[in-house]
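Retro notes, structure queue

What went well: the backlog is down to a handful. What didn't: a couple of records were mislabeled last round, so from now on we paste the full input next to the output in the thread. Example, using Protein FAR1-RELATED SEQUENCE from Acer negundo:
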Amino acid sequence: MSLESCVDDDGSLLYIVTKDESFKKWLVKRKSDNLLSCSCRMFEMKGVLCSHVIKVLREAMNVKDIPDQYILKRWTKQARAECVQDMHGHEIQANPKLQQTYQYRSLCSIFTRISSRASESEKAYNVAYEHASNLARLVEDILCLEIAGNVLKIGHESQDVNLEVNSIQDSNLMKVKRLKKKESSRG
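Corresponding output:
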């Protein structure tokens, strides 16, 4: 890619950028406020600077770093940290996987500490193992109910869990429905 020429156009500079092995030409316009726009319109359409603008920045303007006005907020680390709101102003999780990753890491940290301490004593190990088994069953029950669309009620004072399992008892939910194989009639 090469910078072919520069033309003054009513207070703006027009740079002609060509690709070495082809006859294609792109016009990069430098306005009086030093904003650049290319005829390929990649930045305006996708939010990514094209190689033509970068060529003008590096060779004509002698700029080594991309100016801040060309770095959209969505490409920064700050974009992940901020809350996203829906059209009603309610906060929504921008990426549900981030929440799941956070929850996974915090649980791993807690259970690693518990495992480390509980392994120091036979009695502590047995208590931790029993509670971990109960907790594993409880988590599976909760996830099954969420999948089945039931409501989970947790009593905070008594710490016991009351599950509404009316539809779980329905034998139709307990059976796995499979597609029947169609017999082919090739002859």
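Agreed that this is the format going forward. Reviewer comment attached to the example: The longest strand covers residues 2-9.
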